[in-house]
UniProtKB/TrEMBL annotation:
This is Glycosyltransferase. Belongs to the glycosyltransferase 2 family. Its EC number is 2.4.-.-. InterPro entries: Glyco_trans_2-like, Glycosyltransferase_2, Nucleotide-diphossugar_trans. The lineage of its organism: Bacteria, Bacillati, Actinomycetota, Actinomycetes, Micrococcales. Residues 10-161 form the Glycosyltransferase 2-like domain. It comes from Kocuria carniphila.
Length: 331
């Protein structure tokens, strides 16, 4: 590995003509030698032209959605370090060198930029509370504390990128990235980054309720996919509880009279207990398949090189010391 690792920035864009040139320029000025790849995702304005004029490599993804862009970029691009940042100029590019240095100093495979508002209106109404809700759910379900799972500002190693399946289509890609990181137990940490209002003349592509339900759906799918025993155990407990509610009075009556006069209730209670056992057995079998899949994924992950330890990222200005607010080291 060379002393100067190759660093690329992936910038998904949809109608960001007013902001993209500044993002590209700031990236080149902050991290000399970085290759900036702007992916134009069905824009109807001059986003692609503005990015090219600012010095970015412009590529196109015709399947609309940020998840489609990330999947395409992860498949197409080869580098030692990948920086993912939005093209709306809401994230402070000046924090990028600190994030890259943190990844290399670990070395880590994933550095999450935890948003710190530099203006009171940076978060849209409802987004902050929704983000906290999803953070709590993921932290509980996957037993790893997550501070800002919906952040679009991240730094990855090559082995993270090439072992990430990227199944999402739209803004739920951040959820998939977060769950992959915590569930695979890759070495990761979090760094505070500045987060500000969108550039004047641009508008957010997020739809609070629509995207919130999409995130909830992908979270439910990933939860069943990654922790099936937890999901089936919950259903098994609920069915067994209902079976007890219906069955205990029948059993008590049998011990008192020696008869079972309520056969339908007895059959219902028996069926509920049988279903509870089926769900529990299904969870055990699915959990075995998950373990085999994780072993295969882990072996593929280990085939790829780790980030170069102790190498500093190139920069034009001295970095400001940042506070790492959480570290989850993987096995």
């Amino acid at each position: 590995m060379s002393s100067s690792p190759r660093i690329i920035a992936i910038v998904p864009c949809h109608n960001e003509e007013a902001a993209i040139a500044k993002v590209v320029t700031d990236l080149h000025e902050t991290i000399p030698g970085i290759d900036v790849f702007v992916y134009d995702n069905c824009s109807t304005d001059r986003t692609a032209q503005a990015a090219a004029e600012a010095g970015a490599h412009v590529r196109y993804e015709t399947e609309k959605g940020k998840g489609n862009v990330v999947r395409r970029a992860f498949a197409d691009l080869d580098a030692d370090i990948y920086l993912l940042i939005d093209g709306d100029d809401t994230y402070d590019v000046a924090d990028a060198p600190a994030m890259i240095d943190t990844l290399l100093a670990g070395p880590f495979d994933h550095v999450l930029g935890v948003r710190r508002q530099v203006s009171e209106t940076a978060y849209r109404s409802g987004h902050e509370s929704g983000n906290k809700f999803f953070n709590t759910m993921v932290s509980f379900a996957f037993r790893r504390e997550v501070t800002d799972m919906l952040s679009g500002y991240r730094v990855f190693s090559q082995r993270f990128v090439k072992s990430f399946p990227a199944l999402s289509r739209e803004f739920e890609i951040e959820t998939e990235l977060t769950i992959h990181a915590v569930n695979a137990r890759v070495p990761q940490t979090e760094v505070e980054v500045g987060f500000r209002d969108r550039a004047e003349g641009t508008e957010s592509k997020l739809r609070t309720y629509h995207d919130g339900f999409r995130i909830l759906r992908i979270f439910s799918q990933l939860l069943f996919h990654e922790r099936p025993f937890l999901v089936t155990s919950i259903f098994s407990i609920l069915l067994a509880t209902l079976g007890l509610v219906f069955g205990l009075p029948v059993v008590a009556e049998y011990f008192q009279t020696g008869m079972v006069p309520r056969f339908p209730t007895a059959f219902l209670a028996s069926a509920l207990f049988i279903l509870a056992g089926v769900f529990l057995l299904m969870g055990v079998l699915l959990n075995g398949q998950v373990m085999m899949r994780r072993e295969g994924s882990r072996l593929f992950y280990l085939r790829l090189p780790a980030p170069p330890y102790g190498v500093k990222s190139p920069r034009r200005q001295p970095s400001v010391e940042r506070f790492n607010i959480d570290v989850n080291r993987g096995a």
